[in-house]
Amino acid sequence: MAATALVSKLLSGEEAGVIITNYTKTGRKFKNYVRVGPIVDEMGKTINFVGVLKEVVDAEKVMDAPMSGGTKLPFMS
Fold first, then answer.
1. Residue 38 or 58, more confident
2. Residues 9-39: pLDDT tens digits?
3. Distance of CA 53 to the CA centre of its chain
4. 64-74 pLDDT, tens per residue?
5. How far apart are CA 45 and CA 68, in angstroms?
6. What integer pLDDT is reported at residue 6 of this predicted model?
7. Domain harbouring 37, CATH code
8. d(Cα 6, Cα 26) in Å, to the nearest integer?
9. Which of the 8 DSSP states describes residue 47?
10. Is residue 76 in some structural domain?
11. Which of 38, 42, 57, 71 could, after both became Cys, cross-link 46 (CB 3.0–4.6 A)?
């Protein structure tokens, strides 16, 4: 399950990204890419988290793409 994988990574102090399935009020299914990372203080203790949620058009391309700043991913605009 995506939520379990996300929580497991966050509890170990790592950032993580997963694709989740959401539904509109009308029942239309769509995919979101969720990326969450810890914010740490000067002692290295996690004090908060920051996350980004983005609708995706091709979930397989998102999961196969390397996590580098210059990578273009197939997100909705």
1. 38
2. 888 888 998 888 999 999 999 999 899 999 9
3. 6
4. 555 545 444 44
5. 25
6. 85
7. 3.30.450.20
8. 27
9. E
10. no
11. 38
User: Which residue bears the tokens 């996300």?
Assistant: 6
Rounded to whole angstroms, the Cα distance separating 67 from 65 reads: 6
In a domain, 77, yes or no: no
22 assigned to some structural domain: yes
Please state the domain count of the chain. Answer: 1
Produce one character per residue of 7-46: b if its CB has 16 or more CB atoms within 10 Å, e if not.
eebbeeeeebbbeeeeeeeeeeeebbbbbbbbeeeeeeee
Cα separation, 62 vs 72, in Å, equals 9
Cα–Cα distance list, 72 to 2, 66, 67, 69, 77 (Å)? 23, 10, 10, 9, 13
